[in-house]
Structures are given as C-alpha cells and as structure tokens.
Amino acid sequence: MDLLHVKRVYKNYADHVALHNVSLHVKQQSIFGLLGPNGAGKTTLIRIINQITGPDKGEIMFEKEKLAPKHIAQIGYLPEERGLYKKMKVGEQALYLAQLKGMNKGEATYKLKQWFEKFEIDSWWNKKIEELSKGMAQKVQFITTVLHEPKLLILDEPFSGFDPINTNLIKKEILELRDNGATIIFSTHNMESVEEICDDIALINKSKKILEGKVTEIKEAYKSNVFEIVFMGNMIAFSNALWTAFELLDTKNVNGRMHVKVRANKPSDMNQLIKTIVNDVQIISVNEITPSMNDIFIQKVQEVMPETLEEIEEEGRYE
Amino acid sequence: MLIIKREYLTRVKKKSFIIMTFLGPLLMAGLMLVPIWLAIKDKDIQRIEVIDETGTFINQFEDTSELQFKHEFRSIQDAKAKLFDEVYTSILHIQGEPNAPEVTMYYKKQPGFSTVNNIENTIEDVIRNIEFQQKFNITKEQIAAIDPNISVKPISINSEGKEESKNIAISTALGFGGAILIYFFIFMFGVQVMRGVIEEKTSRIVEIIISSVKPFQLMMGKIIGIALVGLTQFLLWAVLTGIIYTIIMSAFSLNDVQVEPSQAQQLMQSANPNLAMENPFQDVIDGFKTLPLVQIFVSFIFYFIAGYLLYGALLAAVGSAVDSEADTQQFMLPITIPLIFSFVVAQTVMENPDGTMAFWLSMVPLTSPVIMMVRIPFGGVETWELLLSMTILVLGFLGATWVAGRIYRTGILMYGKKVSYKELWKWLFYKG
C-alpha cells in the first residue's frame, strides 16, 4: 500500500520551475530514496509534503486521504539546513519541539529520556546547544525529528555533518525505525550513500522525475553484463572457450594472474560464464561489474535530457 | 500558545531581562531624585567682590541664595592681585557713567550662564531703581508694593457649557511622558521581535518549526510573547519605581524638609516664584483631578499595545526578509522614520493640541500611538476622533499583520539573497 502518493505536482517560483509534473509512490514501511543533483527540486518537493508550501497544481495523498494540516503530527522532518535555538537548553528545546508536534509533556519527557539513554547523551539535558559540537547537535536534532514516532519520516541529507561512526549509528536507527513500521523518505544528492539502505528510489533532474522504481530492479535493468575474471592459465585457451557468447574487453597480466573483462552478448548470468571457462582455466574470482547509481543517473539523463548532462557534471556530484 | 509560552519564558529567564528589570527603576528613580538631591546639595555660592568706581551701587546689591555681594574699597589692581588668596570667587568691576556703567567680571572659576544673567539682571534692577528714585522720586519699596503677581487659569468650555480648568504643565508632562513610554516600548520590543525572527532564520530552526505550525502562528506567537515580556517588565518597573521612590522620598522628607524647612521653602520659591504664594503640591493635585484620568489610562494601554503590535508585525517582516542584522537598515528606515518623526513633532503638537497637523497625525496609524498620547491629556480630543483613530490603528494593525504574514512566509525560507522592495512586493501575491 502506498503511504504517500504524489500526483502530478507542479510548482513554479517567480523566475524558475521547481517541479514539473512530478508523481511518486512511496510504499508503506519502506525507505524511499529521493535522488538528484543540487537544485533539482528535491527540497521543494519535501517542503510541499511538509505543507510548508503548497503546489501550484496537483495533489498529495497521505494514506488515501488528501494531505491536510492534521497529518503534520504524523510527519517528522529533518531539514538539510539544521538548526536549533542556540541559547536554549537541549532538554527544554526537544520538549518544546515535541509539544509543537502535538505530544503532551509527560509523554515527550519519557520518550526523550529513552532516546537520550539510547544515544548515551543523557548528560546533555541541561546543556545549551551552543555548547555542543556540530555532530552532537545533529544527534539531538535527529532525536527531535523521530521522537513523536511519525508514520512518515523525511530526512534531507541526513548524513552530512556526521562522522562515519555516527553515520552508521543513524543508519542503524533508520533501518530499525523502518522495521518498526515507519516509512522513510531519504533525500540526497550523494547517490552512492543510499544504494545500500533504500528499497525504492526516484531520480529527479531539472524539476522532472526521470526514473522511479525498486533499487534492485533498476540495477537489474541497467546492468552492463560486464564481468571481471581473475584466473591462472592459458590466455588462448580462455579466449577460445568464450569466443561465441562473450566479447573480450580488456586484458591485464598482474603478477602472473590474468585480469580479464568480458561482456556477455546476451543477458546471461554468472553461472553460465563460469560453466564456459571452468574446464580451461583455474578461476580465482568472478565479479559482475554492476553500474553504480551515479552511472545509472548519468546514463538516464543522457537518454532523457542529454543537454543538461554537462551542467550536472560541472556542478559536481560529489560535493 | 506554546510558542507564546516559549518566547515569553526564554526571554524572562534571561539574565539581561532580570538585570534590566531591577536596574530600570533604580535608573528612573535616580533620574527623578538626582536633580532634587543636587539642588539641595548644591551650595556652591558665588562670593562676589564689588569694586564700584561710580559709587552708585554701594549697598544696592542684595544677596540671594546663590550670590553674595561684598563691597571693597580698594583699587582693581589690588583686588585682582589678591583674588587667589581670598574667599571671593570673582570680582565685579564697575566703572564709567552711573546710568550706563561699564561692567567687567574677573573670575577664577567660570561662572555659569545663569550667574552672569543674574548679575546682569541685578545691575539692571539697581540702575532702574536708582533712575526711578532720582527722576520720579519713587522708592524701591513703592515699586515692590505694586508688583503684580498674576497666573492665568485656563478654563475650557465644551459644547454643553461645562467649564473645566486644566493645568497645562501637568497635561504637558503627562502627554510627553506617555508618548516617551510608548515610543521606547515600541522601539525596544519591536526590535526584539525582529532579532528573534533573524535568530530563528539564521539558526535555521525555522524550517523545523514551520513544518509543525503555520508561519503565521509562529510570527504571531513571537509578537504576542514578546509583548507579554514587555508588559511584565513595564509593570515590574512601575511597581519597583513606585516603591523605591516612596522609600527615598520619605527618607528625604524626614531628614531635610523637616530639619531645614526654610531652605526647602526657599528652593521652591526660587524654582517657581509664581507658585510661591500657594501650595504648589495642592496645585498639582488639583491639576490631576481635572484631567480625564480614566480616559488617559485606557487609551494609554490601548495605544501602547496596538502601536506595538503594528510595529512588531512590520519589524517581524523585516527580520524575515534579511539574512543578518546588518542587512536590516534599508528596511528599518521607512518603518522607524514615522516613529521618530512623531516623537519629534510631539513638541509642536503640544503647542497646538487641536490643530490640523495634530489631528491628521493622530489618525495615521504609524504616528497615532505617540501623537494621540500627547493630545489626550489636553482634553481637546473628541470621542469620535479617538474612536476613529483607534479603529484606523486596529485596521492598520490588521493590514500590517496580513502584509507581514505574507512577507514572513516567503522570506523566512529565503537564504543568501539580497532582497529588494520589488521582490517584497511580489511575495505579497504568492500563493500559499
């Protein structure tokens, strides 16, 4: 079932188009990756879902209902630009934000204490935000986002500002929240970072959605059928073995081991490749070279709107 | 509601608020008491040595509380040489014709303007007296006897023929006092609203909050919260000032006024010779009784709050449109100009509280809080004028809130962009 259905949404600002006919299906209890370069329209879409701003055209359904102010309490939002009141104490601030989301004070205090223990930060309760480091403040902010147990959690670039240890901690929390029933929208321009945790993704470029689907299916659809084989043995025997079904792309001799790249002429699986060569050479490893989300993105842009590719590369995807 | 509470509590808990709350009354009490204390304490008497070569002014100078004259019969050179060894603060050297003398003053300590003025007046009086005596044979005492002492009692008659007398001085003081309070309140707390908005914007927390509440609610919460802070502070000030003032005044009356009644009397006389005959305090109390106190109080509270809300909303819009406080100048100016302007023209309005300018300025919502407060104690404000002005102010406030809400909504999520007036105008008509 879809938790969120974005239907043909348009949004124009005075001088540019932010969203053009964007539709999305976000499944219940899944992690949905919203990917795209900076300025593609991700933040605008997120703001529309948060009802910070409204769409010019189109509508959004939340659990089969039209999105309305009453849904606010069921959404948790971690904006890309983080911030908290610098002069306010951590505990007070978290309580205030929780109460704004409609929790009562007792409940909020109880849950906050639990979270603070979980993250081992209970000693921060009476500190002011300005006394904390950036990473510490981020943790507090993450807690305030999930405290009211939202059905939908929207995280905009959630890992920026975290060190690798905390990134893993947060990743673990996100997966746990999903397993406990939450649906998560995950927005980022860093496409590699989400491959491993997203169930579905949508690619947005220049205000248009260019791709949507399950991560596994997309990878399957875009796979290049290229394999890298490392073996010991006779190169001629090897090429003879695969000459009809596979095309030899690249050969390297590294310390007596042959590193060879081949492409299957028809979609084929690894078993078949191994079968064809297993009698001729001694196989050390076989890897399928799968395209990264980044490669897929570029390939897709090339297909759909090649004129924008150069711009994207100039702006730099790896910020 | 929650927002109001937070805005209120975080501000009230601040150290600066507590310090200001307690320091404020001390400062105010100080402002009131220091002049009194100085007046009593200041026994800086000028001892003037008079060297009169014309011989006309001998024993003609009368000592006052600040000036003591002593005639010496010696040469001016001698006196000048000895000035630093003697108690005299200055030498008054008179020479030339008796009816048009040439007067020089040598001093070791710069005499104040009033001292010089005092001496000039004394000499003029003496010459006048001498002339009267010589030409018309009228003595000093005769002139003093016919010295008229008149104070005009202004009485207004309204359309129903009811007569009312008013004390202009008290009206002025009250009107001006009210205007100053409103002016400072609007400025202090209006700017706090703006700062609060900028703080939320720069710390980026605003995006989280407006994903929970409407921007308009956040803005109104902030404005109302800060208004409550202001009212709290104002009330505390009023109470504390009252307490401190009473304590010190009772201390004063015990020590000084009773021990040295003559001096206190003298002070009052020198301060206001016209009131010397009557009891000046009775006069003040009478003056208060004739004022429409209830009307003043009610309209003070109204203009106090409505004026603040109007400016608060506008300043909130300014705060939302800029990135940092340094950028606020260009938008602050058109908002603060009417306020400063009304404060400046308050003086003129006081001269003519029912004039055309006073009327129009008390109708325009941006200036009416200050100007109306100046006008009301003079009593010339008709009820319909007051109601009209209040209605316009409320409409102005609603309009300003609407405008501010629209600018706020868009501005608060705009970063890193210098905003022009043209853009602000466009924001007004964005759809939600």
Mind describing the biggest β-sheet of chain A?
Answer: 6 strands, mixed
Any idea how many domains of chain B?
A: 2
The CATH class of the largest domain in chain A turns out to be: Alpha Beta
Succession of helices and strands of chain A: EEEHEEEHHHEHEHEEHEHEEHEHH
Task: Report the total helices of chain A.
Answer: 11
Query: What's the CATH architecture name of the largest domain in chain A?
Result: 3-Layer(aba) Sandwich
Indicate the radius of gyration of chain B in whole angstroms.
Answer: 30 Å
Binned strand content of chain A: 25-35%
Q: What summary fits the major beta sheet of chain B? A: 4 strands, mixed
Find the structural class of chain A using helix and strand composition: alpha/beta
Structural class of chain B: alpha/beta
CATH homologous superfamily caption of the largest domain in chain A: P-loop containing nucleotide triphosphate hydrolases
DSSP strand tally of chain A: 14
Query: Strands across the major sheet of chain A, in which order?
Result: 6-7-8-3-9-10
How far apart are the first and last residues' alpha carbons of chain B, in Å? 23 Å
| Cα gyration radius of chain A (Å) | 24 Å
The ordered H/E elements of chain B are HHEEHEEHHEEHHHHHHHHHHH
Spans of at least 5 consecutive residues with low confidence of chain A: none
Tell the overall outline of chain B.
elongated
DSSP E strands of chain B, number: 6
